[in-house]
Design goal:
This protein is of the alpha/beta class. Helices cover about 50% and strands about 20% of the residues. It has one domain (about 10-200): HAD superfamily/HAD-like (Rossmann fold, 3-Layer(aba) Sandwich).
């Protein structure tokens, strides 16, 4: 490796969708939860929202809440957690980027602290990431009623853009005390890239 060793602790922060995986995982997860017939029906109803988001007319968090409300509202969290664990075990391994996992393995071998930081749902990202060997998971959470049912809204905001930096700062000690590697692939990772000592945007360094 060309990277120099340092006396400071090293943290490696990985985006999830499109970075550790080859594609977005939200809709594959929703498909896993509801099945094809319901999935297609909900997509049809969400067409105006998805078009508006694609044209930049609807914010990421608003579009996401509309999608989750349509697909998941009133589901029980116990049932959804079970579906999320199944998804992380059966589907996610097929979507991983080999070069990303190789880079993650290198960081683990160097005893670096490895963090997944994602706008995807913590329900399935956390289960997969901890089993894979990551030290910490920062992701998006769903709001839940007192009776354990899902509202469809986000709890604590969407882990996207500057929110990724804010949450990473909340997890770690003062920024000057560690070296940060960051890996991302979309506009939601731009602030994290600017925050890092070693940003890798849509690429992984050769081992």
């Amino acid at each position: 490796m060309s990277e120099k060793r340092t006396d400071k602790p090293v943290v490696a922060a990985f985006d999830f969708d499109g970075t550790l995986t080859r594609r977005d995982t939200m809709f594959p997860f929703l498909l896993h939860v509801v099945g094809w017939s319901v999935f297609i029906r909900h997509l049809f109803m969400l067409a105006p929202t998805l078009l508006g988001y694609g044209l930049g007319l609807i914010r990421n968090d608003i579009a996401k809440e509309r999608v989750f409300t349509r697909f998941l509202a009133d589901m029980r969290i116990v049932e959804l957690k079970l579906k999320a664990e199944q998804f992380s075990l059966l589907v996610l391994p097929k979507l991983l980027r080999p070069e990303a996992m190789q880079r993650f393995k290198w960081h683990k071998e160097q005893r670096h602290r490895c963090v997944v930081i994602s706008a995807s749902l913590a329900l399935y990202v956390h289960h997969w990431a901890i089993n894979a060997g990551f030290d910490d998971v920062i992701a998006t959470h769903l709001d839940m009623r007192k009776d354990g049912s899902i509202t469809g809204n986000l709890s604590g905001g969407n882990c996207f853009g500057s929110e990724k930096v804010r949450r990473l700062e909340g997890l770690l000690e003062s920024r000057e005390h560690y070296i940060l590697y960051a890996y991302g692939d979309s506009r939601g990772d731009k602030e994290l890239m600017s925050f890092a000592d070693h940003p890798y945007y849509r690429r992984f360094p050769k081992l």
